[in-house]
Amino acid sequence: MDISPVAHRVIMCHLEGCEELAAWYHTFQILFFLVSAYFFSCPVPEKYFPGSCDIVGHAHQIFHTFLAVCTLSQLEAIFLDYKTRQEILFKRHGSLSIILSCGSFFGLVACSAITALLLQRKIKEELTMKAS
């Protein structure tokens, strides 16, 4: 599981009584994710209020809301971890690894943009062939 190191850290931190703010954000991240998973798999509002949640308030919207808050909590936790545990990070991985990790994000954005452009071109070609 991807979250297992974070879950282990959160559990151990709370058992030991640590006061890291990042651990609380990680805890909220896990809770928001579990709540969003519940609303993803169970159409709760629609079940109890049929017809009144067709535009606003259906489970899929609630799922996305909790998932967005989960992501915000995760990003805040990562930022706090980076600020407070920077020495550990550099000692374990070195500065080159950090630079490559950050640089790979821009590579991912470039690959996504190229894929979108190629797909757009292919769709335009297929639509013009269909139209003629």
Automatic annotation (TrEMBL):
Which cellular component, as a GO term, is one annotated location?
Answer: plasma membrane
Binding of Zn(2+) occurs at 60, 64
Transmembrane helix is among the record's keywords? yes
Q: How does it sit in the membrane?
A: Multi-pass membrane protein
List the coiled-coil residues: none
Chain segments annotated as transmembrane: 21-41, 94-119
Keywords of the record, alphabetical order, are: Membrane, Metal-binding, Transmembrane, Transmembrane helix, Zinc
Please state where this protein is localized: Membrane
Which InterPro entries does the UniProt record give? AdipoR/HlyIII-related (IPR004254)
PANTHER family, sorted: ADIPOR/PROGESTIN RECEPTOR-RELATED, MEMBRANE PROGESTIN RECEPTOR BETA
Return the similarity comment. Belongs to the ADIPOR family.
Protein name listed in UniProt: Uncharacterized protein
User: Can you name the source organism?
Assistant: Micrurus lemniscatus lemniscatus
